Amino acid sequence: MLTLQCPYCGVAADETELSAGGEAHLKRFGPGSSEEEFHDYLFTRENPRGVHFERWRHSHGCGKWFHAARDTQTLEVFGTYKAQTTEPPKDIRDAITAKRPGWTWRDVA
Ligand SMILES: [Zn+2]
């Protein structure tokens, strides 16, 4: 079972206490963007076998949204952080790189 620590209330919550919210860190496109950009924003999602950043809600706890970095294949959790964070924190990216050398995420250096 997947267990994620809520970064707001500190509870280690089982997945039965959580609601999945899809991919984290989507770049939003609205008025003035091209049709292709808006289409990709609405419908295109990453679905990797490996490291992934996701949105989760502590729905049966404090109710807040947060982000989690985990491996979709092994269920290893690299860390969780607040939803207002615009990109994965450096300590989490470093932890992932230490365990998955050569790993990259989009345009984060
Ligand atoms: Zn919580």
From TrEMBL:
<dbReference type="InterPro" id="IPR038561">
    <property type="entry name" value="SoxD_sf"/>
</dbReference>
<dbReference type="GO" id="GO:0046653">
    <property type="term" value="P:tetrahydrofolate metabolic process"/>
</dbReference>
<dbReference type="GO" id="GO:0008115">
    <property type="term" value="F:sarcosine oxidase activity"/>
</dbReference>
<dbReference type="InterPro" id="IPR006279">
    <property type="entry name" value="SoxD"/>
</dbReference>
<dbReference type="Pfam" id="PF04267">
    <property type="entry name" value="SoxD"/>
</dbReference>
<protein>
    <submittedName>
        <fullName>Sarcosine oxidase subunit delta</fullName>
    </submittedName>
</protein>
